[in-house]
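Re: the request from the purification team.
They wanted to know what the chain is likely to look like in 3D before they choose a buffer screen. I agreed to run a prediction and write the result into the notebook, where they can find it.
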Amino acid sequence: MLSLLQTTGTAVPLSAWVVMLGAIVLLWGVAGWALYRTLTDEERKLDLIRDHGTIDTYSPRTMAELREWIEAHPDHPENETAKAAYNDCVETLHEIDTPFYEWSDEQRAELEQL
């Protein structure tokens, strides 16, 4: 292959090879880390479901945004569906010992159904 490039006069400079190899290593590194993180999270979810029979479905931030949306749109046709999802997550958080998302005990205690 090197002789082919040399005969055509279009040899790739060493810096281009370094950049290409760096990009390949970086891409595989990020992809590998993302795969590891995802599989670890899914394994943790399965362990929580085996232990408690259910897991919390929303993070604290998402629950705050959902509550804000419910209060801001009382006449929206999807309001009751959103309330049911919110209340279901509140009930689950009160039932389980170990939540998947990072809820403090104070945050969980303050949650009330709508």
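For the purification team: The first helix runs from residue 2 to 8.
Please add any questions underneath this entry.
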